[in-house]
Amino acid sequence: MIRSVNGKTPKIADSAFISEAAYIVGDVEIGENSSVWPGAVIRGDIGKIKIGKNSVVEDNCVIHSGSPNLPPMAEVTIGDNVIIGHGAVSNGRRIGNNVVIGMNATILHDVEIGDNSLIAAGSVVTEKTKIPDNSFVTGVPGKIRRKITAEQLWWSQNSPAIYRQLAQRYKREGL
Questions:
Q1: Cα 75 to Cα 60: distance, rounded to the nearest angstrom
Q2: 164: enclosing H helix or E strand
Q3: In sequence order, what DSSP letters do the residues of 18-82 get, joined into one string?
Q4: Segment 4-25 mean pLDDT
Q5: Could you tell me the residue ranges of all domains in the chain?
Q6: pLDDT in tens, 73-120
Q7: pLDDT at 155
Q8: CATH code for the domain defined by 2-172
Q9: Which helix (H) or strand (E) element contains residue 137?
Q10: CB–CB of 133/117 below 8 Å?
Q11: Cβ neighbourhood burial of 72 (10 Å; 0-12, 13-18, 19+)
């Protein structure tokens, strides 16, 4: 479901796949070949959310541009070739390119995550944290454990193509 709020309507690239069971509202832009899967909620009702090309918002994710308890935040930017895993929640300010946010991870307000980084499943990245490029983050609270491995980098750079093929199949089959 795609909805307008406060005079803002989501702008979605024609090549993107949006599940009919997703909810996208407000000042949201979704780039070429990106996909948003069932149960995902993207709320640009407080501030703008911009999602780049070839990015994946998996099932039951929540992406929000702010909090009713905080003043409006800066634009939320999610880069190209990003995977936000099943059940993840993000209120972060910036997620770079080629980033994997693991399943059920939580990215709190004002977080910035550098390019080529991996946030492990279940991790909680606390408010205002800045994660440099090429970082592997785990834990509650999330801590940088090391640089990502070549295998992890390959996964972050190549797995969006798998989702792109799946999304194209869903579109062909009218799902």
A1: 22
A2: helix 150-172
A3: E-TT-EEEEEEEE-TT-EE-TT-EEEEEEEEEEE-TT-EE-TT-EEES--TTSPPPPPEEE-SS-
A4: 97
A5: 2-172
A6: 668 999 999 999 999 999 989 999 999 999 999 999 889 999 999 999
A7: 86
A8: 2.160.10.10
A9: strand 135-138
A10: yes
A11: exposed
145 CB-side CA count, 13 A = 15
Residues in contact with 103: Cβ distance below 8 Å, sequence separation at least 6, in sequence order: 58, 85, 86, 87, 88, 121, 122
Q: What is the pLDDT of residue 130?
A: 97
Give dist(CA 57, CA 45) in Å, integer: 18
The DSSP call for residue 108 is -
**Angstrom distances, CA of residue 163 to CA of 8, 9, 27, 46, 95:** 28, 25, 24, 29, 19
Residue 82 and residue 68: Cα distance in Å, rounded? 27
Query: At 68, is the pLDDT very low, low, confident or very high (cuts 50, 70, 90)?
Result: low
**pLDDT score recorded for residue 70:** 62
Give the tokens for residue 5: 């709020």
The distance in angstroms from the start CA to the end CA of the chain is 13
